[in-house]
């Protein structure tokens, strides 16, 4: 007896592309992005910018290997070539100036509908001086294409060009300054660093200025929270959410990812998105 073939229909969910670094232990970067996309019902692709390998022999410091810019350009070309339309793009760690220039070229060429820029300026193990060059290149070459940017407190200070931010009002002011640089939506993240007992971020889109706040969970920094937040915003934009609603959902995803964090040998825990919406 021959079995009747079942009809296979493509499901074609929304598609998100992460242009990001690999963090091989799975706690941050592209690995986190893909898991977050999947958890939110979005098909994920990745174009790798760099490979980060923590060094267990040296207090888990970052070892950073940049991907050849042409290989990065080829990956983006491949993702776009296969899918045609990419509904949203997340830009994560870029790491070097040639990488930033390659990504800027791709953003100019493909004009993606939604671009989330998580301005990862430096990671442990990079020269502090490199942050300045990277900041300037990101600001000039990549931020002009952003639909939304999600700087943490340090990155907010650098991008807004302000001194240390210690109050919610100063954070609001900095978010407005970044908006004034031409970014249509800004989520300036203080997390727990303003001592409010909450994880507090400011959203600004030129009209709505909203403080997004959830109870802080624990005292320790959890690796991958920023990546998860930006990836969840990307997934929600791919599904058609407004930037503000995307940020609200993304904060819920981060809360779940921190509540369900992973503990290993490194001196920091990392997020796990796999229980969001399933508890
Ligand atoms: O969480 C920031 C981050 C982003 N991207 C990669 C990383 C890290 C931190 O470790 O390794 C690739």
TrEMBL record:
InterPro entries: HMP/HMP-P_kinase_dom, PM/HMP-P_kinase-1, Ribokinase-like. It comes from Actinomyces urogenitalis DSM 15434. The keyword Kinase applies. This is pyridoxal kinase. It comes from the Bacteria. SUPFAM superfamilies: Ribokinase-like. Its EC number is 2.7.1.35. Catalyzes the phosphorylation of hydroxymethylpyrimidine phosphate (HMP-P) to HMP-PP, and of HMP to HMP-P. Gene3D superfamilies: 3.40.1190.20. GO terms for molecular function: ATP binding; hydroxymethylpyrimidine kinase activity; metal ion binding; phosphomethylpyrimidine kinase activity; pyridoxal kinase activity. Residues 24-263 form the Pyridoxamine kinase/Phosphomethylpyrimidine kinase domain.
């Amino acid at each position: 007896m021959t079995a009747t073939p079942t009809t296979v229909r493509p499901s074609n969910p929304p598609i998100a592309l992460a242009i990001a670094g690999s963090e091989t232990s799975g706690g941050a970067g592209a690995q986190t992005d893909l898991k977050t996309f999947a958890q939110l019902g979005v098909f994920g692709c990745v174009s790798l910018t760099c490979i980060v390998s923590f060094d267990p022999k040296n207090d888990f410091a970052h070892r950073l290997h940049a991907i050849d810019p042409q290989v990065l350009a080829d990956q983006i070309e491949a993702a776009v070539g296969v899918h045609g339309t990419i509904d949203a793009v997340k830009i994560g760690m870029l790491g070097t100036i040639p990488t930033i220039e390659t990504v800027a070229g791709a953003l100019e060429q493909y004009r993606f509908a939604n671009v989330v820029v998580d301005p990862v300026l430096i990671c442990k193990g990079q020269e502090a001086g490199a942050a300045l060059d990277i900041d300037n290149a990101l600001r000039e070459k990549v931020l002009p294409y952003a639909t939304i940017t999600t700087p943490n407190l340090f990155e907010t200070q650098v991008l807004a060009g302000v001194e240390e931010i210690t109050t919610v009002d100063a954070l609001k002011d900095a978010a407005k300054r970044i908006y004034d640089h031409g970014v249509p939506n800004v989520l300036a993240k203080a997390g727990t660093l303003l001592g409010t007992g909450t994880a507090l971020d400011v959203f600004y889109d030129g009209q709505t200025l909203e403080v997004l706040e959830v109870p802080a969970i624990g005292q320790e920094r959890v690796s991958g929270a920023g990546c998860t937040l930006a990836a969840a915003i990307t997934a929600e934009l791919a599904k058609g959410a407004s930037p503000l609603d995307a940020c609200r959902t993304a904060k819920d995803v981060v809360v779940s990812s921190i509540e369900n964090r992973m503990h290993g040998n490194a001196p920091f825990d990392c997020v796990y998105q796999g229980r969001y919406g399933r508890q």
